[in-house]
Write a structure and sequence with these properties.
This protein is α/β, with parallel strands linked by helices and about 280 residues long. It has two domains: about 1-190, Alpha-Beta Complex (Spore Coat Polysaccharide Biosynthesis Protein SpsA, Chain A); about 195-280, no CATH class. It is built from ten helices and nine strands. Strands 1, 2, 3, 4, 5, 6, 7, 8 and 9 form a nine-stranded mixed β-sheet that branches. Strand 1 (about 1-10), helix 1 (about 15-30) and strand 2 (about 35-40) form a beta-alpha-beta unit. It starts with a strand and ends with a helix. It holds the Pfam family Glycos_transf_2. It comes from Flavobacterium chungbukense. InterPro entries: Glyco_trans_2-like, Nucleotide-diphossugar_trans. This is Glycosyltransferase 2-like domain-containing protein. Keywords: Glycosyltransferase, Transferase.
């Protein structure tokens, strides 16, 4: 059994190099009986000429194109040789036997083909070994996704329409569309070292809703009406986020429509006719 781990990185400072190195070191130390292939897709175009060097066993790929979350992951997947692939951020710490726990769930439940480890490191008293579901940030954790190479090929690789935002949402919907079961594995532990936003960054978002609407570099007349409401002003605070959200809307539908389609799709899965989701979604 071989696991290919694709890690996205941007090595431009000593701090970022150290964080990625810690990620790789913890990954290698976490499994003793699993063969692990490490593929680093590097966004620093000048990495080769930089002072930063990762171990020789790490395959570093520096794409010529600009960063695109799904595109860079696809580049890593296409270069991978493993039966399983893990799609990872570089701000992770892997704990002992994290993948072995996922592999155990898969062997005992062959119908489950996509997984996320738990980010709750100190929660060892879990009621269930795993939880099925497609809810983003609950079951589907975009910072670490594990699946088989066969699943990636079945869905046609990741949709490169999504630069970054809503990439995990698109992955979750794609799994459901293709009737691929996903599970959060509580016994598998991987820590996500998220950085908290600084006070200054939060203050920088406290501009008026009217001003936000005026500054969005999109034709507001072409935006869905539900977006232009006070409840959704967060979408207008970042043009890239808004752009990714509109892509998600155009592909999967409005929240109200998606809610209805999801209800039907969930029933199809429950009654073992999930193959109909290719039509429903």
């Amino acid at each position: 059994m071989k696991l290919s781990v694709i890690i996205l990185s941007y090595t431009t400072t000593e701090g970022l190099f150290e964080m990625t190195s810690n990620c790789i070191n913890s990954l290698i130390a976490s499994e003793k009986s699993i063969q692990i292939e490490v593929i680093l897709v590097e966004s620093n175009k000048d990495y080769v000429n930089s002072e930063f060097k990762y171990p020789e066993f790490v395959k570093v790929i520096v794409p010529e194109s600009d960063f695109n979350f799904h595109k860079f992951l696809n580049i890593g997947v296409k270069e991978s040789k493993g039966d399983f692939v893990a799609l990872c951020n570089n701000d992770l710490i892997f704990y002992e036997n994290w993948f072995s726990k996922i592999l155990e769930v898969h062997k005992n439940n062959s119908h489950i083909e996509s997984f996320s480890p738990s980010g709750k490191i100190n929660d060892f008293d879990f009621a269930k070994e795993f939880e099925l579901g497609y809810k983003v940030r609950t079951h589907v954790l975009g910072w670490c996704l594990v699946t088989t190479k066969k699943v990636i090929k079945r869905i046609g690789y990741l949709d490169e329409t999504f630069n970054l935002g809503y990439a995990d949402n698109d992955y979750a919907m794609t799994l459901k569309k293709y009737n691929i079961r996903h599970a959060l594995v509580n016994s598998s532990k991987v820590e996500h070292l998220e950085r908290e936003k600084t006070k200054k960054n939060r203050e920088g978002l406290s501009v008026g809703f009217k001003k936000l609407r005026e500054n969005v570099d999109l034709d507001l007349n072409k935006l869905p009406n539900y977006v232009l409401t006070e409840a959704n002003k967060y979408l207008l605070e970042d043009k890239k986020v808004l752009d990714d959200y509109i892509k998600f809307h155009n592909k999967w539908g409005s929240p109200s429509l998606l809610y209805k389609k999801n209800r039907i799709a969930d029933l199809c899965i429950k009654f073992h006719v999930g193959f109909l989701n290719r039509i429903i979604l």
